[in-house]
Design a protein that fits this description.
- There is one protein chain.
- The protein is α+β, with helices and mostly antiparallel strands and 187 residues long.
- The chain has a domain of 119 residues: Cytochrome P450 (Cytochrome p450), CATH 1.10.630.10.
- Helices cover 42% and strands 14% of the residues.
- It contains 6 helices and 8 strands, in the order ααααββββααββββ.
- The strands form 4 sheets. Strands 1-4 form a two-stranded antiparallel sheet.
- α2 packs across α4.
- It is globular and about 55 Å long.
Length: 187
């Protein structure tokens, strides 16, 4: 925060408050959605869940696969800063585009069995955190939080299963669960 309020490109008070709110909201909701989306993927793929219980060293790789398989952020609008050509289509300077991260992460030209969750896939090139100058500032923290949650749940439970109907958040940008009822047997 010190760097944001000092120096030649310091933020004014209103900008600083908006930036802090963005960090708080983006860093909280997206990680919550990563954890719930990952849990739902493991419930849908019980063999992969067993693999994680049998080999917890796969957890960091499974976190990357959860990010690819069901990204917490599905899209973010962008404006072209210059004319650019993509696949033969010119996007003029100022033109608006909507990169669909969730779609890119399920591209069968890039991922074998793109619609299947595989705990050992290790997709290091997924788009869940964006890319380039738009790469997510909180990516390392989100990965750490998801890993710690998965390790803790696996260590403290023998078995988990869905005990009610999951309810999705209705939002065109973020994808997550409002509700995921589970039952478990403690370890």
């Amino acid at each position: 925060m010190s760097a944001l309020v000092s120096g030649p490109e310091a933020l004014n008070l209103a900008e600083l408050l908006m930036f802090c709110m963005l960090l708080l909201i983006a860093g909280n909701e997206t990680t919550t959605n990563l954890v719930s989306n990952g849990a739902l993927a493991l419930f849908a793929h019980p063999d992969e869940a067993r693999r994680l219980r049998d080999d917890p060293s796969l957890i960091p790789i499974a976190v990357e696969e959860a990010l690819r398989y069901d990204s917490p952020v599905q899209n973010l609008g962008r404006s072209a800063t210059r004319d650019v050509e993509i696949q033969g289509v010119t996007i003029p300077k100022g033109g608006r585009v909507l990169p669909l991260y969730g779609s890119a992460n399920r591209d069968p030209r890039h991922y074998d069995e793109a619609d299947v969750f595989r705990a050992d896939r290790n997709p290091t090139d997924h788009m869940a955190f964006g890319s380039g100058i738009h790469y997510c500032l909180g990516a390392p923290l989100a990965r750490l939080e998801a890993r710690v949650v998965a390790e803790t749940i696996l260590r403290r439970t023998k078995k988990m299963e869905i005990s009610g109907e999951p309810e999705r958040v209705i939002n065109p940008i973020v994808r997550g669960l409002r509700r995921l009822p589970v039952s478990f047997q403690p370890a």
